[in-house]
Amino acid sequence: MITSFCFVAGGSGGHSVPCLTIAYNYQQQYPDAQCIFFTSSRTLDQKIAKEYTWLSQIQHLRLTSFPGWRLWRYPSFFWLIGTAFVKAYTILRTEKPRKLISLGGFVSVPVCLAAALLRIPIELYELNAVPGKAVRLLALFAQRIFICFEQAQNNLPSEKCIFAPYPIRFSNVLSLSSKKLLAPVKNLTLLIVGGSQGSAFINSAIKKWLSLPNRLSIPFTIIHQTGAQHLDDMQRFYADAGIDAHVFDYHHQLESFYQQADIVVCRAGAGTLFELLFFNKQCITIPLEDCADNHQYANAIALAQKYPELVSVVRQHELQKDPELLDCALRLKLFHDGQPSGFEPNPNT
């Protein structure tokens, strides 16, 4: 009988990409096994999943976000959950996987509940310092929970928790394709990453910073992941301002851009932060503040305390009041060692 493993994640690249990295590692360890991936039917999740052509199956589940006070949406909400549960139960009962591995996101709830009912072992990965709601719920049914921040076990059953490194998707090798993207050697290369879906706030903050009359004026090249909704607007902005910029909505492999970057401005999702540490990159992180558990701020503070020479934190509400804070953070990154002028690019570039 063919061995199979099931994986579930969705809702953002921060859930799906590390889940698929773990799946790839299983596929390398068990080359004859089937790898089945459950994810949502959202456009981004479909775009990410289709890049992994070695997957045996990709199962998209149609779900909606929690309705909250919008009571009229509850019938549809529960109908979709029930439909997703039945679909997952049917597939899991047919495939009989050795285990189910979940990285959270709402899409993981019906799949993990179906696995629990079928007595399929469940392993959870919590990548953030503060566990999400789905992981906290599903911890009741999991045999093991892998965590990347030690403080995460404060909100999970500690006897199930195992510390594990973040599942990095990259290798140490600089690919030939990335060399074609390298910026001019005398320029500072600034990478701006707002997450897999982009960040309207960071995009706006960059505009305000570049419009400051006394901003940092050394030569630089910008690489900017804007998100699909803001791509055209940011392309026009850079063109009108005459700024050398490579702008894109989403890119599955950011390795070449990380390699080029001298400084990165980013959110504080666990994936982004651990990947920047992997590449040993200076970063200015602006944690998202409108999430209920404030996990991005917890991620950023934990890593800034551990790696103060690499990670700096700028609070979103403070930057909103004073756009010059980003310019100050960049100056501190560039001149912390007393450089009098100019900029010496990172040796990786």
Descriptive notes:
There is one protein chain. This protein has 13 helices and 13 strands. The protein is α/β, with parallel strands linked by helices. The protein folds into 2 domains: 4-163, Glycogen Phosphorylase B (Rossmann fold, 3-Layer(aba) Sandwich); 176-335, Rossmann fold, CATH 3.40.50.2000. Strands 3-2-1-4-5-6-7 form a 7-stranded parallel sheet, sandwiched between helices. The chain has a 6-stranded parallel sheet with strand order 10-9-8-11-12-13, sandwiched between helices. Strand 1 (4-8), helix 1 (13-29) and strand 2 (34-40) form a beta-alpha-beta unit. Helix 1 (13-29) runs parallel beside helix 2 and helix 3 packs across helix 4. It is elongated.
Q: Domain count, please report it.
A: 2
Low-confidence stretches: 173-185, 337-349
Specify the structural class: alpha/beta
The N- to C-terminal Cα distance equals 49 Å
Q: What fraction, in percent, of the residue positions are helical?
A: 25-40%
Radius of gyration: 21 Å
User: What does the average pLDDT come to?
Assistant: 88
Strand composition percent: 15-25%
**Outline:** elongated
Q: What is the strand tally?
A: 13
Strand order of the largest sheet: 3-2-1-4-5-6-7
Summarize the structure in short:
The protein is an alpha/beta fold and 349 residues long. 38% of the residues lie in helices and 17% in strands.
